[in-house]
Amino acid sequence: MSNDPWYSLGITPVEALWVVVSAIGIYAVFFLLIRSFGQRSLASWSTLDKAIVIALGGVVGRVILGYTPTLAAGIIGLLTLFTMMRLEEYLRRTKRGVYLSSRPVLLMAGREILADNLRRARIQNDELYFKLRQAGIHNFSEVSLVLLEPTGDVSVLRRGVPVERELLRRVADKDRIPRELLLPEDGS
């Protein structure tokens, strides 16, 4: 039995540093993958998607914790991931933070389905129709706007009340929205 306090924690300082570096690396790669595959990759998951995520969690855990996971390594890994989340949250509030989050994508403007935006967002027409049905839409004439949000969720806004322009602040292609669906510039 050693008198070294690191020995009783089950991790050496070098191993602890490796856990931190691994957690930061995995976080960065995950962030880049989500950005490159689009926010839709985190939305509605099939059973297979959920199984794959569970498997990926095991792989990520092993990468972060190393060959011999210990309680100390687990705590250091979790603290590092939560610190990265807090740092990202802080950076999103800064002027440059706008680059960290995806912009909402306009999928429908009135009755018009924007096929190019659907393709870019990796959404099939059938998925769009499913979201419309979920929102209680019976026909296309009821639709004001459909947006893919930065979270991967799909928002369906109904016709009837014009949409305030401030709500569409970061929406890509908002110039494609018919004027009659928007509150006039003067707010009246």
Question: Would you kindly provide a written description of the structure presented here, covering whatever features stand out?
Answer:
This protein has 188 residues and is an alpha+beta fold. It folds into 2 domains: 5-99, no CATH class; 105-181, bsu07140 like domains (CRO Repressor). 46% of the residues lie in helices and 10% in strands. The protein is built from 6 helices and 4 strands, in the order H-H-H-H-E-E-H-H-E-E. The protein has helices at 5-9, 13-37, 47-65, 71-92, 115-120, 125-134, and strands spanning 105-109, 112-113, 143-148, 154-158. A 4-stranded antiparallel beta sheet has the order 2-1-3-4. A hairpin with a 2-residue loop joins strand 1 and strand 2. The termini are far apart.
Q: Please report the total strand number as a whole number.
A: 4
Extract low-pLDDT stretches: none
The largest sheet is: 4 strands, antiparallel
What count of domains describes the coordinates? Answer: 2
- Give me the Rg, rounded: 22 Å
Beta percentage is 5-15%
Net shape:
elongated
Query: How widely separated are the two ends?
Result: 78 Å
Short description:
This protein has helices at 5-9, 13-37, 47-65, 71-92, 115-120, 125-134, and strands at 105-109, 112-113, 143-148, 154-158.
